[in-house]
Amino acid sequence: xxxxxxxxxxxxxxxxxxxxxxxxxxxxxxxxxxxxxxxxxxxxxxxxxxxxxxxxxxxxxxxxxxxxxxxxxxxxxxxxxxxxxxxxxxxxxxxxxxxxxxxxxxxxxxxxxxxxxxxxxxxxxxxxxxxxxxxxxxxxxxxxxxxxxxxxxxxxxxxxxxxxxxxxxxxxxxxxxxxxxxxxxxxxxxxxxxxxxxxxxxxxxxxxxxxxxxxxxxxxxxxxxxxxxxxxxxxxxxxxxxxxxxxxxxxxxxxxxxxxxxxxxxxxxxxxxxxxxxxxxxxxxxxxxxxxxxxxxxxxxxxxxxxxxxxxxxxxxxxxxxxxxxxxxxxxxxxxxxxxxxxxxxxxxxxxxxxxxxxxxxxxxxxxxxxxxxxxxxxxxxxxxxxxxxxxxxxxxxxxxxxxxxxxxx
Length: 410
Description:
The protein has helices at about 1-25, 30-40, 45-60, 65-75, 80-90, 95-110, 115-125, 130-160, and strands at about 170-180, 190-200, 200-215, 215-225, 235-240, 250-260, 265-275, 280-290, 295-305, 310-320, 330-335, 345, 350, 360-370, 375-390, 395-410. It is α+β, with helices and mostly antiparallel strands. It has two domains: about 1-155, Tetratricopeptide repeat domain (Serine Threonine Protein Phosphatase 5, Tetratricopeptide repeat, Alpha Horseshoe); about 160-220 and about 285-410, Lipocalin, CATH 2.40.128. The strands form two sheets. A 14-stranded antiparallel β-barrel has the order 1-2-3-4-5-6-7-8-9-10-11-14-15-16. A two-stranded antiparallel sheet has the order 12-13. Strand 5 (about 235-240) and strand 6 form a beta hairpin. Mean pLDDT is about 80; it is low at about 5-25, about 150-165 and about 340-355.
């Protein structure tokens, strides 16, 4: 029997002590607070919190107690729970510097710099020119600036059209494209191979293209170059030659690109195409804008002629980039014809530069991505064209374009 009573006595000891602490919290909140504070500073948050919560039941506006309770959550990385208590204090006790500093630091620990900046601005309204708050504001400003700089650098990197991921000097290109018509014309095929070499002043890209159009085959030989003058200016140069009448005999282009701001690029240039029987010179240019991971560009083509009205064509491009400039999804809307790739025949007669003046609309989707290795670059495109028959004004045919490109880099 005595053993049983002793057992009950042992079980009752924790309840006695808890009752004493509970009574202590109500009868002497300051003493209870100091006891909990000691526990918290020793890292015993779980033991300190019940005492602090008991005090707040009787004294809900005891700011030091609620501040310490919030800090115990913050120190454990429970920032949302800490935020609730900090906000309750600053809502009424607007000049409590210690609480403002703890609250702002809680946001910084949670990587919520924008929220921290908002709170330090509120604190400075009630405690103007406080050196500790001004120091925190400077710290937040510097952290936000540091985060913004990589984004600006990424935007600038994306604005360089020939900028790619990785340090590759050599790139091969395998190109294939097919146009399928809904009437009159047979399918047209294009295949090509190119080699890109990165020099100290820019890229050089020789290219050979093979086409099968109108039951005729032909080859075209081209070279592109992108000499760069400085970080803001580079030049695009092109020359192409073909002995086949399904390509222009000569084509040449030159275009100067300039970054006029960190997010905007503009260009102006000329494109000359020799169709053997006649030739055409087109004035072109572009205006490109980068906004975050998006790129937008507009490009007009003007073709002056002395004996006919000026020809107009143009395109609008929108792209959304992924993690790098190599990965994007794009949409191109075009009005007018690209004469070097969309020539048509009437019998045995090439419709030369007159094709520039027919009505045409095209929508093209493009998707470029890297494989498991960034050294392998892929691009697919799918488009639909509505174009007027030159010999039948007002009558149209449709063409679907499917293309694929593979670029191994090393």
